[in-house]
């Protein structure tokens, strides 16, 4: 169930744990700033003749306004609909023609586009991506066709998925003013009423070199990449970006609860507590690191506390998961979610979760337990050294959260200094009812095929 609640930043942060552990500095990483404001980061890794090329725009669903939710994701779709030079649908074909793979993704905090190719084909994809940064050109017919695709995507991934519906209601209940309360894919009514001009306005507002970071990782020479990026991206014109409103989330004053009725086989429970995130310029703030390690104490391995207690011993739930994002642009939640076992109730599961949390609060955790978690985190991430794409993802996601790739090793070093007492302290401070939101999925019988309408 928690696949929809868990997010990716911690995975990427952990990716470079091995370089920190060996004392290696990222001397093979180079950063440049073009005159038009574009940031370029090049990570040289010469172990295989492949390259990952990514463009990150610091514009996600949190930058949307009411009535236009989902427009960031819609524009991601429209970016494949052609420019003055490249016809609709040709972008993907041209990347495939040089043996590459490509895609894009939208989050609350950013939108990113990537290609992974053999190194001699890198210029081809840089040229294509730089072209659509400035020259996107789609007609109304293309838009209205694609908005139907997006609405169908919402139906399949959210409206027909009880876990997604629960997560959507949880976020909309937990947050009052933060745009994090809106789903990335948008509300259906907003999609139904979206116009081509909405997507074009979003493109003109946010897709500018001074709001973008290009990340290139792989078997490359940084100086040569800089020359290519200046040649193709350097012609893009910077412009003033819209003013970003802070939209600070007001303090929560007590338990919130929401119930969702949807066709499902089992009841589900999601519990979310307001929690602090790591903020740029405050890398020594202990609490976010301690919260991150608390997730591992509860759910970081097969025999972690919640899985051992709720799944294996009590058999009250079929699965349980914990999520927390240490770095992000907006306010954060510490999440626990579970799917009930047959014959078990949500109240039983919630009671078991609360008991497990109370044990951490009152008795703390052992130094040996925390040490094992730190070692496990390190060993689990070693194999990812070979992922060119993973390195580019780590750099880009860190930059979009307002940090520098140069901060990553320090974050990892700081994580290793956290004590059991600090983990216990954040559990006591933040996993309390005052900041808790509870979402419950009440499973409804599924309609049989013979009783479906026309």
Automatic annotation (TrEMBL):
GO biological process: proteolysis
Entry cofactors: Zn(2+)
Pfam families per UniProt: Peptidase_M16 (PF00675), Peptidase_M16_C (PF05193)
Residues annotated as domain Peptidase M16 C-terminal: 198-374
Bilayer-crossing regions: none
Domain Peptidase M16 N-terminal: 41-185
Keywords assigned: Hydrolase, Protease, Signal
InterPro entries for this protein: Metalloenz_LuxS/M16, MPP/UQCRC_Complex, Pept_M16_N, Pept_M16_Zn_BS, Peptidase_M16_C
Molecular function terms, GO-annotated: peptidase activity
Leader sequence residues: 1-23
Family of this protein: Belongs to the peptidase M16 family.
Name this polypeptide is given: Zinc protease
Organism ancestry: Bacteria, Pseudomonadati, Pseudomonadota, Betaproteobacteria, Burkholderiales
């Amino acid at each position: 169930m928690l696949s929809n609640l868990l997010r990716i930043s911690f995975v990427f942060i952990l990716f470079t744990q091995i370089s920190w552990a060996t004392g290696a500095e990222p001397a093979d990483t180079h950063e440049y700033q073009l005159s038009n404001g574009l940031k370029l980061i090049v990570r040289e890794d010469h172990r295989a003749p492949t390259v990952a090329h990514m463009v990150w725009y610091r514009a996600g669903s949190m930058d949307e306004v009411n009535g236009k939710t989902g427009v960031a994701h819609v524009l991601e779709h429209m970016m494949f609909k052609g420019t003055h030079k490249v016809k609709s649908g040709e972008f993907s074909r041209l990347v495939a023609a040089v043996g590459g793979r490509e895609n894009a993704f939208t989050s609350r905090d950013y939108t990113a586009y990537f290609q992974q190719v053999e190194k001699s084909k890198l210029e081809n994809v840089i040229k294509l991506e730089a072209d659509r940064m400035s020259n996107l050109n789609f007609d109304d017919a293309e838009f209205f066709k694609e908005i139907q695709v997006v609405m169908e995507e919402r139906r399949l991934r959210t409206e027909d998925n009880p876990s997604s519906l629960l997560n959507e209601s949880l976020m909309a209940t937990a947050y009052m003013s933060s745009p994090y309360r809106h789903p990335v894919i948008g509300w259906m009514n907003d999609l139904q009423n979206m116009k081509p001009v909405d997507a074009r306005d979003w493109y003109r507002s946010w897709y500018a070199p001074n709001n973008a970071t290009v990340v290139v990782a792989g078997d490359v020479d940084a100086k040569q990449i800089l020359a290519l990026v200046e040649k193709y991206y350097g012609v893009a014109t910077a412009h003033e970006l819209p003013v970003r409103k802070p939209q600070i989330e007001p303090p929560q004053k007590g338990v919130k609860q929401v119930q969702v009725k949807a066709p499902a086989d089992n009841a589900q429970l999601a519990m979310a507590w307001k929690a602090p995130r790591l903020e740029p310029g405050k890398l020594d703030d202990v609490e976010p690191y301690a919260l991150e390690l608390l997730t591992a104490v509860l759910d970081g391995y097969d025999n972690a506390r919640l899985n051992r207690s709720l799944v294996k011993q009590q058999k009250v739930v079929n699965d349980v998961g914990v999520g927390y994002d240490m770095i992000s642009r907006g306010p954060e939640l510490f999440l626990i979610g579970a799917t009930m076992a047959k014959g078990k109730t949500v109240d039983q599961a919630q009671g078991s979760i609360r008991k497990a949390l109370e044990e951490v609060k009152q008795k703390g955790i052992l130094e040996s337990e925390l040490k094992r978690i730190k070692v496990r985190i390190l060993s689990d991430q070693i194999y990812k050294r070979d992922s060119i794409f993973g390195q580019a993802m780590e750099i880009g996601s860190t930059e979009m959260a307002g940090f520098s790739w140069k901060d990553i090793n320090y974050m990892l070093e700081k994580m290793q200094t956290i004590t059991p007492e600090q983990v216990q302290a954040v559990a006591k401070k933040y996993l309390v009812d005052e900041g808790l939101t509870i979402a419950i999925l009440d499973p409804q019988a599924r309609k049989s095929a013979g009783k479906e309408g026309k």
